[in-house]
Amino acid sequence: xxxxxxxxxxxxxxxxxxxxxxxxxxxxxxxxxxxxxxxxxxxxxxxxxxxxxxxxxxxxxxxxxxxxxxxxxxxxxxxxxxxxxxxxxxxxxxxxxxxxxxxxxxxxxxxxxxxxxxxxxxxxxxxxxxxxxxxxxxxxxxxxxxxxxxxxxxxxxxxx
Length: 160
What we know:
Number of helices: 4
Strand order of the largest sheet: 1-2
Shape: elongated
Order of helices and strands: EHHHHE
Distance between the termini: 7 Å
Strand content: under 5%
Helix content: 55-70%
């Protein structure tokens, strides 16, 4: 009989070895973690495309940064370049998730580290905005959810 993974873990003991598995094509964690990682990667991919293709890169229309100031076009340009690198990273993460399912925990760890590093960057180099940017509004709510998904992804869910 073939073995499959269940939606939820069969054991709630995280196994750190699953972060860098010996067999990266095989994922023994819960399908819920895989589905959540793919859903979040869809959001990241859309965000990247907005930064790359929106006329203002989302700088004013979404992040509420005043781009009518001197150097405003530079801000828009930086948002576009940021979107380009975000899109490349998103495509790489799609390859990891679709080709090497065993790297779901590593991908979720990267997702969980992003709000922390973005928060640190915002603290070290604050940006003045007219309103509250979506990233700033959800950053610290997102971290616990992504951290929980990361821990969940480390719990075995293989059954026969």
